[in-house]
Design goal:
The protein is an alpha+beta fold and 389 residues long. The chain is 33% helix and 27% strand. The protein has eleven helices and 17 strands. The protein is globular, with a radius of gyration of 22 Å. Keywords: Hydrolase. This is Serine/threonine-protein phosphatase.
Length: 389
Amino acid sequence: MTDRIDMGAALRAALPHALLDTVRDHLASAYGATSVHLFLTDYGGTVLSPCDSPEGGEGSLPIAGSPEGRALGSQEPREQQAPHGEAVDHHLPVTVRGDRIGILTVRLPAGRSTPAVLDELRQVAGQLGHEILVAERDTDVYQRVRRVSRLTVAAEMQWQLLPARACSAAQYAVGAQLEPAYAVHGDNFDWASDGDELTLTVTNGMGQGVDASLLTHLAVSALRNARRAGVGLADQAALADQAVYAHYRGRSHVSTLLLRVDLATGRMEIVDAGSPQMWRLRGKSVERIELDKQLPLGMFEESHYAAESFTVEPGDRLLFVSDGVYEAPSPRGRKYAEGALARALHATRLLPAAMAPGAVLRDVAEYRAAETLDDALVLCFDWFGNDLR
């Protein structure tokens, strides 16, 4: 117990860029760890990149097929015999409220890997994850590690605007992914929970490059401003519509799907203001949920919006996709929504919400005729239900 308290205190006192060194020193002293490495998931969600100093010599690892990647996917620690001697490597998920940040790998001498020690190592990994999120306000170290190539300016703006890539609670789990991860410009997602309700938005700003990012940034900021003022969902859409129109005067607009979920009942309010689509997997049945289409934000002055109702049932999976997904053409010109999207939902049904969007986007990339993926977004929402109902 004392070691765990000391670890938390040491991390809070550490310089933002020195969290790994602090953990390494602590684990060597407390458990005899002979090596400690931190790997962070990259923006594309396909690679674990090392957070070691250059002299560490460790390279990036694929998430698919590596022991570290399997630990990330299962969210359970995995053991691996060290290449030489009898030491054991422990791959520990670094996750904060469902957001899969990376993997902490700790090598312990033979005989030191007791259940009590492993439980403490899991807590260290959790503490480290929280401190990384705090430290990112003051250092670029962890942001740089996540990049296997340079982001465009537009993508930089979009990733800085996002809440996280996953979030979970007792009633639900959410995961989302943008592609192309290093060059996305207009697509965006957002969420917020206050304990009683969860608000989700899926946004597709028109245009290309920085112009699209600036447009989306304005829309998302206006939606957040309205949401934090405590107004209803339809009024959030109306206020964001006014903000976008006031700046662009109808020359540009933003397609947005807004949802608010009552966490006690699973009842939803939805405003469909544009192109993002909602699909539902219930049991073995997949269907697109047709909504009352309303004007995109900023198209006309003082547009009025109305929310419609929808109820999710325990076990439901909702998938929200931008036009870069459902309109993706095959070499024969068949759109992804015309059969392939439903198959992808079935194929990924056993994946957690945090992992499903990336799998769907990889399927889209293989499906489409062009070599590169258009701006595309997938958000997955799993509803577990509320036992208190």
